[in-house]
Amino acid sequence: MLEIKNLRKSYDANVILDDISLSIENGEILSILGPSGCGKTTLLNSILGLTSINEGQIIYGGKDYTKYSMKKRGFNIVFQDYSLFAHINVEKNIRYGLKNFPGLSTEEEIQEMIELLDLKPHLQKRIDQLSGGQKQRVALARTLVMKPQILLLDEPLSALDGVIKENIKARIEQIAQQLNLTMIIVTHDPEEALTMSDKVLILNEGKIAQFGSPQDIIERPADQFVEKFILNQLIIKKEKILTLFG
Ligand SMILES: Nc1ncnc2c1ncn2[C@@H]1O[C@H](COP(=O)(O)OP(=O)(O)OP(=O)(O)O)[C@@H](O)[C@H]1O
Ligand SMILES: [Mg+2]
Fold first, then answer.
1. CA neighbor of 67 nearest in space, from 44, 46, 86
2. Into how many domains does the chain fold?
3. Which of the listed residues 10, 14, 81, 202 should we mutate to test ligand 1's pocket, taking the one with most ligand atoms within 8 A of CB?
């Protein structure tokens, strides 16, 4: 279980995250939703250990991780821009992190991940020869062979749309299940959050607007902000679709 207790983060006098508390069980998917600038990336970076926090605790498996370095935490992140190495091919990108940790994934496990993400036909290609969705899959494979205890994804699907997005969403869900992976996904798409996750965190200006199951949020939105931000966007989408089909 990952527990965040009363986390507070500020830059100078600006409070960016205020009294954030939540918990997720191992193997669960948590989505973080909220308007631009509300603190989503800062929260991910705080969990990852990339950003220091001012107050609060990060507890994982009953142990206090708050003072642990990023490396010691053993969490891993796929950044929004993927941060792949352009000058080496797909296969080398996937194996890159294992150079320093040989044996963390067996050869069989690496091959399995390549199969699972359908990257076999692309192994010898350079990164600039790939589509957005293919890059996304390489970034996921490269991170997953490192066997992170928790996988953090910052808007992983935002660059994608349509069928590719559905495909990758399905793959992420499949991998999460197969590996019993705990995942935290930042998204700005309420539909994605409500359909993919076990828990949803809605942030507004650095504070928790609501934290609960998708069902809680749909059936019992905590306040007007949640109702407006989440539900209206869904309704607008539904109306758009209905208009399209007459
Ligand atoms: N290193 C920093 N120094 C000062 N302020 C920062 C720093 N990083 C982020 N902020 C501020 O913290 C706030 C939250 O930023 P954050 O990147 O977490 O937002 P976000 O929810 O991820 O937004 P977006 O949806 O646009 O990615 C913003 O007001 C931002 O300007
Ligand atoms: Mg962000």
1. 46
2. 1
3. 14
